[in-house]
Structures are given as C-alpha cells and as structure tokens.
Model the fold of this input.
Amino acid sequence: MEASLLSSTFPNLLSTTVQRRACAASGLAFLACTTLGLLLANVFATTFYPSPFGPPFGAQTDVLAYFTANRAQVRAMSFVFALAALALLVFVAYSVEILADTPRARRSGLPGLAQGAGMLAAGFWLLTALLLRALSLPEATEASGLLRTLHNLVYVTGGPAHVVTLGVFLGALAAAQWNATLLPRWITWIGAAAALLSMVAIFALLWEGASILLPLGRGLSLLWIFTVSVALLLTRSRAEMGGADQQGEPSTGQPTEKAAFPAS
Done:
C-alpha cells in the first residue's frame, strides 16, 4: 500500500515541481529574448537602431536606410520580442499567484492590478513585435509616411506604453510584498524603485526629455525580473521538502512556497 501511494504521489510531485520551475524560469526567458532583440537591433545590425528624436536620446540613424539594410535583423527581432511577450505573460500569471495572492493583498485589490498591468505590458510588447514585422516588409520602406508612422508606433508601444504598464505591475507586486517574507526586502526595494522610474516615464508622451527615463525604468525592471525569477527558482515548496502531512499539518493540495533567501 505504501509503495502504491509513493508511486502515485511521486509523478504528481515531479510534475508540479517541473511546472513551477518552468513558470519561474519564464522571467529569465523574457529577459533573454528581450536582450537578444536589443542586440539584433544594435550590435548585429549595420548601425544603431534609429531613435525618433536623435541625440542625446538615441542614434541619429537614417530610418529608411536602417530598415532597408536590416530587414532580416528586424524580422528576427520581431520573432524574439513575440517570444518575450509570451514568456512575460507566463511570468505575470505565476508571480502574481505566488507574490500577491494573500488575504491582505486580495482585500486591497493588488493582485488584480498586478495581473491587469502585467498583461497590458505583455500585450504592448507583442504589439511592438508585430509592428516590427510590418517594418521588415519591403512595402513599408516604399512609402515614407507609412515608414515614419510605423517607426513612431514602435516607439510608443515598446517605450512608454510597455515600460509604464510594466512599472504598475512591479509596483503592485512590491506593495503586496512589502510586509511579506517570501522575498528579501532588498528585492522589494528594487521593485519599488523600478516601478517609480517606469511610471514617471509616462511624461515622455508630453516631453521628449523625459524619454531618458525609459531605458532607466526598463533596465531596473529587467533587473527586478531577473532577481525574482532566480529567487522563485530557488524557492522550495513544502511539498518538495516532504509534504505538509509529514509536518503534522493538513494538506491543502497546493504547495506552499518557502523563502529562497532570508528576509532582510
């Protein structure tokens, strides 16, 4: 009977563990795909990706020449950004469930806010990928007006729209974790700082000078996602450590996460 119970429990535990680790790693997948896309845009292209504003906010690159000479790179960038958006969707769903789904947070509405903002951030990143796919077509470079419009839309969706909604997502999770112990306090502080910078970047829609906040907010947000993904990968659930029943506690059917690092 014990052998039968073990044989039925172990596959379920293994499956749960693999699923949990795959969901936790989705943040790293988002980070990797986003970084690869940025490398394709600047390092593996013939020149730097053109900024809508030029220096000091970005390279003063001829837009027509860039998209004519780098169609393959732009198409590849579209593909990896689409993968990044899908990975972000998974990370949003998992991180909200683990970090924000507590009785206190539910009463404040933070899980819903984090979920909605995270989904919007992923949606804007996917829209950016689709617009880049359109920019890789020869027809886009044949009409200067269409080219300029698509180029500016890529900036709006992948810049202020994505970064600001990502900041709201981080801010809601940081608020939910403020008095919790699953993550160390320094990670929560990084999330709060990234959220503040990212949300203030909405002023880039009014003033070009505020565009400098976009890479700052994006960079700090990516750092937070990296640290949280690693923390969640290292977090051991109670089920992995022997199960709640073995500790004399009633089993709820759901693995309880235990902190990967000591809180500070």
User: Anything to note?
Assistant: Strands lie at 236-237, 257-258. Residues 22-240 form one domain. The chain has one domain: 22-240.
